[in-house]
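Hi team,

Filling in the usual template for the complex we talked about on Friday. All components are listed, including any nucleic acid strands or ligand strings, so the model treats them as one assembly.

SUBMITTER: L.P.
PURPOSE: interface mapping
COMPONENTS: two
RESIDUES: 602
SEQUENCES:
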Amino acid sequence: MSNTKFILGVYEDEDILLSAITNIRTAGVKIHEVYSPFPVHGIDDVLGYKRSKLSIVAFLFGVLGTSLALTMQIGMMGVDWPMIIGGKDFIPYPSFVPVIFELTVLLAAYGMCFTFFIVSDLKPWAKPRIFDLRITDDKHVMAIDLDQNKIDVAKIDQILKDNGASEVNKKTFDEA
Amino acid sequence: MTTVEEKYDFSAKAKKNLLITIGIGIALTVLGIVLMSTGGHHEEAAHEGGHAFSWINRLGVDIWINNIYFTGIAIVGVFFFALQYAAQAGWSAGIKRIPLAFGSWLPIAGILMLVSFFIFGHDLFHWTHHDLYDTTSHEFDSIINAKKAYFFWPFSEHPSTPVFFIARMLFFFGLWYYLFTKLRKLAFQEDFEGGTASWYSMRKLSAVFLIIFAVTSSIAAWDWVMSIDTHWFSTMFGWYVFASWWVTTLALITFITIHLKEKGLLSIVNENHLHDIGKFVFAFSVFWTYIWFSQFLLIYYANIPEETIYFVERWNNDQYGIIFFVNLFLNFVLPFLFLMPRDAKRHTAILKVVTPIVIFGHWIDFYLMITPGTLKENGGYGLVEFGTMLIYGGAFLYVVLNSLSKAPLFAKNDPMLDESLHHHVQ
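RESULT (copied from the run log):
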């Protein structure tokens, strides 16, 4: 049983939030995550997020789909039970293309989707951490993990308030 | 908002280079013709085929390929322009003047097409031969005879001059050129008057143009390309030709944009705009493949001789079989793999390599549509093909760049300019 302690800065306005993120990061505080009720333009730039590698995952799953479709069709039509259909070869590649296309798209889409769920903690067995119910309504919440920061709590508190946080809360999650 | 006045300077050096290109093209064509007429290689083939074959046939076919190809780029340039207004697109505000300039080729393309039809019509189109419609002749062809009204109406009983066919050609070019000049006039009117009135007029006119273009481009494809294989037909052919024209035009817009950017022009165009136009090239390369394959798969699978003949002539053929795969490789595999990563579309290095390949690749696509049906076993690829391509390409670029230099490159009063300035894609 471990406790994860968070300090939460609540923001009302996305412009104040954006400048606050920049100032807080330059002050040396590590931000765990920022939650907002709507997409904030340019927020990933100020948070210093690198470009997601999800597109590479999609490509790899696509390649997997292509190989699966080829293996399946060649195995069924050419090896396991060869049949002459419409006077074509046992392995008529042009006829395989629609299935190859469909499986490539299917696996790329599902693979990307499930990878995204797992990476962003939306997996079915994940316990959701609800920082503040108002992030689905009208407040932006900046979560700072105290384990990741060696700065004094009172100081972080002060930095958040100095940068326009309307309130500063604390939250502890008991996680098995 | 920035109020830069940008104008493309069609320098004497650029003019000279293009004229040299045309000169090299003429030299190569003449050399190719001389080699062909003195080589004597084709005379044997002519005896076997039963048709008298001379270099004139091959020159006519090559000219026809270029007629179709460059007419397509010209009209699809106007299509791109109209599409931006109909879709109320903002991102493209900085580059819209480039495709608009393509339309300047239309009157020349129309004249060239009409003249070459009168000179080479009999070599290109089997259906122009009169004895096909003569029931007493042993050449009588009941299938083509049933289609004669499409070409010869209202004189289908005495098929001599294809009145309907020529009337359509004149009508299409006339209509396209008329709509192009109207759009162009409105675009420049906006530069002087400002406001949004011109934008709304252009939007209305664009919608009209798109409807007209949807019908005319399809019929033009049947007339000028599909009727070469008169017995054969494909309901996808209009789309197929359009898809090929569309990718070529997008690739050319990208290429010219990069070229102008490197000259220090188009200051409001940045990697976000390049990314979007690059995505267009990528997506429509796939779209072309989709259309190409849809046409191919149905014919392959149904295996009906009157349909498969088209691919028998192109795929199961020693001469054209290789080009058949080169076509797919250059127009699908290469752009698909090279343009897939994000950075490839945001930086000019890869776009500068891939877009010329796509532009050339679709020339090959038109070569494959036209040559096997007209020249059969006498077709080939060599100096004449390359030469005529250089002549037409040089002339086309000369006309387009000249037209581009005549007007401001930057539509300073475009209401979409602000949106384009702040355009940002992930």
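MY TAKE: Chain B touches chain A through nine residues (CB under 8 Å). Chain B has a mean pLDDT of 92.

Thanks, L.
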